[in-house]
């Protein structure tokens, strides 16, 4: 544009050169502002996208457990989805035990099961939820890259003790104890026996069955059938063995005196044992078997030992039966439970091989060590008393005998005088005979066809020395020495 001058001439306006840099600078500033604003807007939009992604209250994409994709699921939804899968797995958890006519099922209904699913869910939930926003977003984006997704597989366990209880129960149900043949009757008159038959048993190896079952469960062999091995168990005693080996084990006889009362007592005591059965491990008591020896039972007065003296007593003489029984049972391999020797040795058995009894304080008690019952036959006849023991043989050619050895002897050399004011004045009466004292050791001898093969110490018998003793009354009480 031209400007007119006062004289009428037009004047050209000059261009200001310095405005060009200003304009350029302003244009650059505007462009920079635009670029900066665009970048900030893009960063803000990216931030919002990141914040929205990491703020999800569901599992991130690219995470799975047991093949179940958890992306987009809440924790409760994920638990429910996995619970359905576990139900299917639990339903398939079963085995069958086949024992022929009987079958048992082992399943999750009887065996508690558990999974580590909750632990895996917490681990999966933690992915992308630790660190800065950028770190969390980077972890989430990484899950979407090929080959970088996260897959967990749960582990489950089952109650092995519950399995053992089930297999043990099966083994117990199938186990039948064998039954030995036994003696059911003894005819003491003709010495014959009646036997029962043996019965076979069966058993199952409970430990082997348990190990087989858990091995198949651990392998995942669900639905399989496990054959139960049932083994036949034979009894230890058969009827044939009893018939071949049952019979007379031992017998012992002693001679009695001519005293009729004493022989009557011996006969009654022997009859109490005639036909008696002693079961394996059972104890036999002389006093319990005969009971108290009383007149009402037919026992009579006869000689007996009391306080080192011979006295008349109802039932006197029955110690000969107890001593005869003692010798028979020792030879039948019975154990001694209670036994006492007499005050002095008896003349009807060797020294050290007697057994005294007295109701109710002194008793003879023996125990049957055999695995079979032992039957007794006992009787008095012609001034002898005999006791026989019938049972399983001690072994082919084996028998037992006794041997006693006197290790100490003391002969009385003094006479004892005792004042008794109840005697008639001027009299002197013998009240005790002198008796030699002994110590005797008794041994059990094992014989093979009559030849000793071993011996064992049984017991020691002590017979006190008894001095000859008199009571007197000379009409005055003797002075103290």
TrEMBL record:
Residues 397-478 form the G5 domain. InterPro entries: G5_dom (IPR011098), Glycopeptide_resist_protein (IPR052913), Vancomycin_resist_VanW (IPR007391), YoaR-like_PG-bd (IPR022029). It holds the Pfam family G5. Keywords: Membrane, Signal, Transmembrane, Transmembrane helix. The chain crosses the membrane at residues 15-35. Signal peptide: none annotated. It comes from the Bacteria. This is VanW family protein. The keyword Transmembrane applies.
